[in-house]
Amino acid sequence: MGAIAATVGSAVGLGNIWRFPYEAGVHGGGAFLLVYVACVLLMGIPVIVAEFVIGRSTHKNVRGALRELAPRHKLHWFSYVCILASLMIISFYSVVCGWIVEYLQLSVRGLLHGHTPAEYEQMFADFVQNPWRCVLWTLLFLALNYVVLRRGLKRGIERVSNVLMPLLAVLLVVFCVNGLTLPGAERGVRFLFTPDFSQITPRVAIGAMGQAFFSLSLGLSCLLTYASYFKDSDSLVRNATIVGVLDTVVAILAGLMIFPAVFSYGMRPEAGPKLIFEVLPAIFEQMPGGPVWAVLLFALLFVASITSTISMSEISIAFFSEEWGMSRNRASILNTGIAMVLGTLCALSFGVLSEATVFGMTLFELFDYVSSNVLLPVGGIFFSLLVGWVLDRGLVRDQLTNHGTRTVRVMRPLVFCLRYVAPAAIVVIFLYGLLWR
Ligand code: PHE
Questions:
Q1: Which of 61, 145, 244, 408 lies 20 to 30 A from 177 at CA?
Q2: Which of 168, 312, 378 to mutate to test the pocket of ligand 1 (most atoms within 8 A of CB)?
Q3: Is 80 exceeded by the pLDDT of residue 435?
Q4: What would the mean pLDDT of 386-405 be, rounded to a whole number?
Q5: Does the pLDDT value for residue 131 go beyond 90?
Q6: Residue ID of nearest Cα to ligand 1 atom 9
Q7: Minimal CA–CA distance to 211: which of 424, 380, 404, 387?
Q8: Is 68 helix (H, G, I), strand (E, B) or coil?
Q9: Is pLDDT at 430 greater than 80 in this prediction?
């Protein structure tokens, strides 16, 4: 129960509540959701199982696991890809966590109240262009993340989050019900659930695949590490399904919270990363007891985001300490230091560094795009091929059936998916995206 709750804690985070609505908004709503769900089913859940098999059979971190499972193949170089991805993600993710902290303090001070939607848009624009405030909150968040890692408060945070995550889900349902009663809400529901097939373009497919990997914390050995703590009696297939389904439900709830309001207030669904920070304050404004809901929601989002940043930090900390022989404290300092430098640059991407672009993207956008849409799916190919082709069939069967004590009805389709469907689908989406941009 503890290990699976921690895994869900890693998966459910700003990816579901901040990134899913913004990506769905940019990529046409229903078309995006359709491809997203297909990606979760065909690649997401199978690759989660693959990471689980590797993690639980070795009880090691990614590098140790690869050395043990495939000693002749020198595959442990792949751990560098995982570390690169985790450092890129924590750098831009902590900026958004900083935005959450800003909005939490604004709501506690009662300042997220009494304005029009246009004023809230301006408020966010002023905030992200202010170099000091954004950087300050990002650094503060990372410092807090360090304290949690350093002090071994992880267990405590996980215990707290076991109670608070279900509460977040309840809160999302309240917001959805509220959203559905808004005038014109049905247009938002239609936007999210009615796919316009002509909108399924290469960009949408790549975006949805990247979002699925990002939201499931998949492809960078994060789930592998969690699974190394699973018990031998845990069912890997069942746990993977729980993570995949819960994570998707939370994302859809977030969509149902945001889009009815977007259409009802005449806002733009394609606003990008700032979407929820403009829409949520407008929602609180219209709800009875709005300021209280605001504090509650941002506080819970804060908890959801720190359980995710802990899990991403763990990847490089385990590597620095186990492979380079650093103490855990030093490893945490190194991880935090790198994240602070890169995070500062990402935080400035909306203000003074907004002109500093690579391939037309700011550093924030570049890290977001490259990690989610390229590195994590590459990780997906790696882990699915490894479990589908390289690992001993008997070992995989033992892991899936817990040494023959469980019957797994989906065994054949699952292995088929890992061998062919998931890697081929990822490659097809990559090629489709590169060749038909
Ligand atoms: N899945 C997390 C979220 O949805 C983000 C994350 C990505 C966490 C990669 C760990 C590793 O917020």
A1: 244
A2: 312
A3: no
A4: 94
A5: no
A6: 217
A7: 380
A8: helix
A9: yes
